[in-house]
Amino acid sequence: MSAPSVTRSASLWFGPGASLDGRKAFAADVLAALLAASSVAAGFLFLRTWRSGGQFGSEQLLFELVIPAFAFAAAMVGILILVRVCARTAEEKFPSQTRQKFGRKGLVVSGSSLLFIASCCYRAVNVADEGASMCRGRSTFFNAPVAGRAVATVGEIALVVQISTFLDDTSRRLGISSDLWSRRWQYTLAPVICAEILSWTGVLSGVSRFYCAEYVMWICISLSWAWDAAECLNKSQRWSDSLTHAAVLLGGLSLFAFNALLEIPHFFRYHPTDSVDGDTAELLSIFECYQDRESPLWIKRLPFFFSYFFGCSWASAALSYRYLRRGMCVANSKTD
């Protein structure tokens, strides 16, 4: 019988069977509480900095420590989850009544999550705004618009693969017979590939309104996630399932609102001369960014960097952890 635990995450941190040890269960709860408290503190710092236009809080602390640190922490959790999934996959030839089987889809969910989180880590260290060809740190190839866009392309496609695989598999486990959006590549891979093509067109042409078209595609993707999550929420019976699907539903709607209310209006009006003078704008290149750590652009774009590299990386890790605990199709696993 498992030791009393709020988060039931001891087996993630300390390995199979750790939930039976009261001290390890308590340590896992303390670790989760520390992560939650530090996340709340980081969120408070973000809001204080952004809402005051940088007068209060600390823009430097956010960009140089908080956002990269939390992105790398999510990466560590993602690696741990991938290791757990690989171990369970390797043990499939030794069946157990208590072990949940993980196969190809488990590796797809955890592997694509790790790819997305790795892209967040890369971009959190090499902070740059591709639309403005501007960076906070010293200009190098690694923070050039073309490099940042290449890394983002891999990460964003991986994120769509992770979420669509999760929704497809969990809907089958819940016995949903209707053909959801996440079950058809035409409504998962095709839209994100189209979005990435539009984004690359914006980077290569310097026309910011291509980013608006990209975000329209992301709005369509976010609505498909929200729809499928709502279907899963309607069929959920366990509180953990309900919480997970409600979170995915809220995440889809939040992505819709963020793109519609912040990103599209920003790029619809944006021109490089809004951030640099006309002579400098003529010299901007996709292979080299313009360094200006004092630009007001960073405060304006802070919601994007914080919610993407911090929020989305941890949301991806949380979804992988949920799949690790309970996510396989009923035909291939036992429920926990």
Describe the structure.
This protein has eleven helices and three strands. It has 336 residues and is mainly alpha-helical. The protein folds into two domains: 57 residues; 268 residues, Rhopdopsin 7-helix transmembrane proteins, CATH 1.20.1070. It is globular and about 65 Å long. It starts with 9 loop residues before the first helix and ends in an 11-residue tail after the last helix. The C terminus is likely disordered.
Short summary:
This protein is mainly alpha-helical. Helix content is 68%, strand content 2%. It has eleven helices and three strands.
Task: Quickly list its features.
single chain, 336 residues, mainly alpha, Rhopdopsin 7-helix transmembrane proteins, 2 domains, three-stranded mixed β-sheet, 11 helices, 3 strands
Topology:
Elements: H1 10-14, H2 22-51, H3 59-90, H4 104-125, E1 128-129, E2 134-135, H5 145-173, H6 189-205, H7 209-235, H8 239-269, H9 278-283, E3 290-291, H10 297-300, H11 302-325
Parallel strand pairs: 2-3
Antiparallel strand pairs: 1-2
Helix pairs in contact: 2-3, 3-4, 3-11, 4-5, 4-11, 5-6, 5-7, 5-11, 6-7, 7-8
